[in-house]
Amino acid sequence: MKFSSFWQLATFGIKTILFHKKDPILGTVIVTDKCNLSCKHCSVNNITAVIYPYEQIKREMQTLFDMGVRILFFCGGETFMWQDGAKTIRDLVIEAKQMGFLIVNVVTNGTHPIDLPEADLILLSLDGDREAHNQIRGDTYDTIMHNIENATASNICFYMAINQINKHAIESVCRKAHELKNVRAVSFNFHTPYPDTKQLKLSKAEKQSCCDTITRMMNEGMPVFNLKSAFPYLISGTFPTPCHQCVVIENGKISTCGRCISVPGLCSECGYFFVAEYTLLFKGKIKIILEMLRTYLKYV
Question: Which residue of 25, 75, 108, 202 has the lowest C-beta tally within 10 Å?
Fold first, then answer.
């Protein structure tokens, strides 16, 4: 991370903590909900299957930038399916950089060729070892591994949602992240139980066991892009929600924190590690602040 970017983000954090501000710093643009997969834990794919046009997405990016957002995510559906004429997701990343966003990340399922060196991080969904991943996402594990090996930059971060199917496979994903040269780290979430996927949610005891495994992996030097100091809050569900510093825009509609905020009762069952990490950060938790500084400077 460039020092100028670090200083801008640090200044935002200090102001937010001192003055209890609720301005956003992290924003997500949903470029489409069209997806080539039908994953067992996903509730937001192919609802409309609309690919939003370039000019609309550009306006939405500008809206977020004008709100003060400086960390931008492109998300789907499947982002690599986005195309408007000759323009692809790569053009959106370049446009975002030129617009002035400090960090630009892309979320993908990894089933398309990965040629996106302009992104700071490509968060690639890997949901376990081959058996667990394929049980959740279909027969895609080997395709994803091939695409990672042939990626044009080492800016990939695994993105694993832990649920009842893959809770045993945390160590496997950590070791795979450590093994592959194009993978920088792995970031975990717990499954957030939308009404149609409640059977996949974890109990507190299971979350504790998962966090124990992640901690052990971190202690062994595995590249984990999460904060140990947030684990007790994630296990107990006692971190503040929603995260006012995060916003999502989809087809012109802006939501605080994420799309799931519109589902009654779901906020209280949030499994997103970044929500816990950011809300605790902006509450001024010293351990969170120090650990986030070390982690972001290492992996972003």
Answer: 202
What pLDDT, on the 0 to 100 scale, is given for residue 223? 98
Sequence spans of domains, the chain: 21-226
- AA identity, residue 127: D
Q: Is domain 21-226 given the CATH code 3.20.20.70 in the classification?
A: yes
Look up the pTM and report it.
0.95
Contact 206, 193 (CB under 8 A): no
Cα–Cα distance between 162 and 240 in angstroms, integer? 21
Residue 240 CA to residue 233 CA, distance in Å, equals 9
Q: Say how far apart CA 212 and CA 205 lie, in whole Å.
A: 11
pLDDT on residue 3: 64
Tokens of 171: 């160590």
Mind listing the pLDDT tens digit for each residue in 79-100? 999 999 999 999 999 999 999 9
Q: What is the pLDDT of residue 299?
A: 86
